[in-house]
Design goal:
With 455 residues, this protein is an alpha/beta fold. The protein is built from 15 helices and 21 strands. The two termini are 25 Å apart.
Length: 455
């Protein structure tokens, strides 16, 4: 039975190190994943990497040994980003990939992210199949079949080359603008890749927290309330834009040229404008994504679809719908032309392309779009009966259109509210958006009241 202190979802297995997530737990699940991946018979290679978290080297070493113990040959890329590792799995035609990263979670957390041979996170069915191996006993190999280890020091360089080779990125136009750019890596893995990308695009870089040692100087989630230092850096340097990444560099948040954090949803909205402005087609985003994304999609003649929260859910829906762009409203941009995973370096390049080719500033782009206020709230999961909470919310808003693919999302022509248990933290998320702060706050309060009343 899974330890209740662990968060198990399509985002992997997360926990507080020493409190649920221990070296023994990492060894068990890494071995189960290795056996699952190798057992599919396509390859014995498994790519292994980690972000900058303080506990990363320790747990990375445990995972490496565990993978070898079931006969997997480890391709070690060590300190890296999640999208880099996903692309490395595809590059090596590996059986899978294991990324040690708790993404945006606080410093005491770490996690195992399981990636299949197609470079996508394992879906719910594959994840259950893999975990079943742990439950019934991992098939360890004998001494003469223990896996090997080799390193891949070129993974990040290949990632950057692939981004800069995309036809949708006008590198000469970006270089000609000689942008001044501010960047906050939050001492995550982004310090190893984003400054190099910016320099290759001809930018002057003003950066903070580049040391990739995992000693986060602030809460690592790149939401507006955590980006005060980056806002000040933009103002002080006169930068055209400020970029912030989470520790494993699959999410990108923006600060405008006025030194204002504009919210992560604009990252995907701007990317959709670039891609759908040159290639007609559809876009997919998760159900907690701001309407600014749908406005950008529809405004360029595209069609919009929604999927449950979770990168793999969006990626699979994109593949099924042959969407040309997609992602999540948390700053994650997915471009199938590159790979089916959220990718912050890609989002950086697309944002700079838009600035270079549109000619307007970030502030002007935001001012020229329809305005909404999105409020992202959360409360402790506890013993809340979610079915009762959903029923109470639906009864309170009988005029709304309900979507139950992922928790409960109620939609009106100009606003929405989404309640769902988080897959990455022991909390319930209550997210609402409306044309005014008062309207969004009212939806959040009604949602919170229903959850509390169902406890």
């Amino acid at each position: 039975m899974t330890d209740p202190r662990l968060m198990v979802s399509v985002s992997g297995i997360r926990g507080r190190v020493g409190h649920g997530l221990t070296p023994a737990v990492v060894a068990e699940y890494a071995a189960a994943f290795g056996a699952w991946a190798v057992g599919r018979g396509q390859s014995r290679d498994v790519v292994l990497g980690r972000d900058s978290r303080i506990t990363g080297p320790m747990l990375h070493a445990v995972a490496c040994s565990a993978l070898r113990s079931v006969g997997a040959n480890v391709i070690d890329i060590d300190l890296t980003t999640t999208p880099t590792l996903q692309m490395a799995v595809e590059h090596h035609h590996a059986a899978g990939g294991l990324m040690m990263s708790a993404s945006h979670n606080p410093i005491e957390w770490n996690a195992l992210k399981f990636i299949g041979p197609d470079g996508l996170f394992l879906n719910a069915a594959a994840g259950a199949e893999m975990r079943a191996l742990s439950a019934k006993g991992v098939p360890y190999v004998e001494y003469d079949r223990v896996g090997s280890v080799r390193t891949d020091a070129e993974a990040i360089a290949r990632h950057l080359d692939a981004v800069l080779a995309l036809p949708c990125i006008d590198v000469p136009a970006i270089k000609a603008r000689k942008f001044s750019v501010a960047y906050d890596a939050c001492r995550g893995a982004g310090g190893r890749i984003i400054p190099t990308l910016l320099e290759r695009l001809g930018c002057t870089v003003h950066a903070i927290n580049l040391e990739a040692d995992g000693r986060f100087p602030r809460p690592p989630e790149p939401v507006p309330e955590n980006l005060g230092d980056l806002e000040a850096l933009v103002k002080r340097t006169g930068a055209a834009v400020g970029f912030a990444t989470d520790p494993d560099v699959d999410r990108l948040a923006l600060v405008s040229n006025a030194g204002r954090a504009i919210g992560e949803d604009y990252t995907l909205a701007f990317a959709c404008r670039v891609i759908l402005g040159r290639t007609k087609g559809g876009a997919v985003a998760n159900l907690s994504t701001s309407r600014v994304v749908e406005d950008a999609v529809v405004g360029t003649g595209g069609t919009m679809q929604y999927a449950p929260v979770g990168e793999v859910n969006v990626a699979v829906r994109m593949r099924e719908a042959a969407a040309v762009i997609g992602g999540e409203g948390n700053g994650g941009v997915i471009l199938p032309e590159l790979h089916l995973g959220r990718d912050a370096p890609l989002a950086v390049a697309l944002t700079l392309h838009l600035l270079a080719t549109d000619g307007r500033s970030i502030e002007a782009l935001v001012e020229g779009a329809p305005r909404y206020v999105i409020i992202k709230d959360k409360l402790e999961r506890g013993t809340v009966a979610m079915d009762r909470a959903y029923a109470a919310v639906r009864a309170a808003f009988p005029d709304a259109v309900a979507n139950t693919e992922d928790g409960l999302r109620l939609t009106w022509p100009d606003r929405w509210v989404h309640l769902r248990p988080s897959g990455t933290e022991p909390i319930i998320r209550v997210i609402a958006e409306a044309p005014t702060r008062e309207g969004a706050a009212a939806l959040v309060e009604r949602g919170r009241a229903a959850v509390v009343g169902a406890a």
